[in-house]
Amino acid sequence: MRLFDTHAHYYDERFDPDRDEVLSALPSKGVKWVVCPGCDLASSRQSMAVAEQYPFFYFAAGLHPENLEGAALSDLDEIEKLCAHPKCVAVGEIGLDYYWVKDPEERKNSQKFFHAQLELAQRLDLPAVVHDRDAHRDTLDIVKAHPGARGVFHCCALSAEDAREAVKLGWMVSFTGNVTFPKARRALEVIADLPLERIMIETDAPYMAPEPFRGKRCDSGYVYRVAETIAQVKGISTEAAAEATFQNGLKFFRLEEKEL
Q1: How high is the pLDDT of residue 131?
Q2: Alpha-carbon dihedral 159, 199, 93, 2, rounded to 10 degrees
Q3: Angle at CA 168, nearest 5°, toward 164 and 172?
Q4: CB-based contact 10:19 (threshold 8 Å)
Q5: Could you tell me if 34 and 5 are in contact, meaning their C-beta atoms sit under 8 angstroms apart?
Q6: Is residue 242 classed as helix, strand or coil in its secondary structure?
Q7: CB count in 10 Å sphere of residue 164
Q8: Between the CA atoms of 213, 214, 220 and 226, what dihedral angle is there, to the nearest 10 degrees?
């Protein structure tokens, strides 16, 4: 069984004690590819440094909506330089977060950065890795304002209706270990409703550890639980769900040639 963790944050300090041990063990657990998105300039550089150490590891560079304090649009010049690295496969993590960002002016600022980073992704012909928390309508409206951009709604929290709209725009959706939680009804409805070829899987490590590991530090070794849940919803084998989402990740990040 081949697994692709399309979103994990291995620069996080929680991996400082044993990062190499965790990452070196992943291929033996069936995890063949990992993408690590940055959230600001520092973490994007850290993600790049980790990607340079492991052949199965890639990264994305971007400014997260929770990390915009003190940021300037000129910082995107540095993001663009990072995106030129041969192991950078996306612009991200970018988007909107109205759960943590409450101030109207700060929300306007995050919208401005979201627009600018989608423009950057389109210009560089890279996909965008999008964070959307409690901002579904504005996030979709901004995505629709950039019809030439492509991307994924990571840790998808969209309704089935909004997810269908995102897929019609040519976008992907990705699910984390929270689909295994007892209250994950809406996510399961979205998985049931969407075609499998539009779905990817992720851990969002070190967050979102799935059941029965909830509350522990998450790593890519747990991504199989997301594949199992998708398989149960779709009525297919775990191996089939893992392979389908694996192929979806390869295509999305344009890593097909690397797999040959």
Answers
A1: 98
A2: 150
A3: 75
A4: yes
A5: yes
A6: helix
A7: 15
A8: 90
Average pLDDT, the chain: 97
The total number of residues written for the chain in this structure: 260
Show the tokens assigned to 72: 């300037």
Nearest CA among 83, 75, 66 for reference residue 127: 83
Quick: pLDDT tens for 8-66.
999 999 999 999 999 999 999 999 999 999 999 999 999 999 999 999 999 999 999 99
Residue pair 25/38 in contact by the 8 Å Cβ criterion: no
| Tens digit of each residue's pLDDT (9 = 90 or more) over 68-82 | 999 999 999 999 999
Buried b (16+ CB within 10 A) or exposed e, 14-49: ebeeebeebbeebeeebbbbbbbbbbbbebbbbbbe
Which tokens sit at 181? 């939680």
Return d(Cα 189, Cα 208) in angstroms, integer: 19
The amino acid sitting at 107 is R
Cα–Cα distance, 51 to 108 (Å, whole number): 33
The model's pTM? 0.97
Q: Which two tokens stand for residue 28?
A: 């033996």
How far apart are the C-alpha atoms of 38 and 31, rounded to whole Å?
A: 20
Q: Tell me 126's DSSP state.
A: -
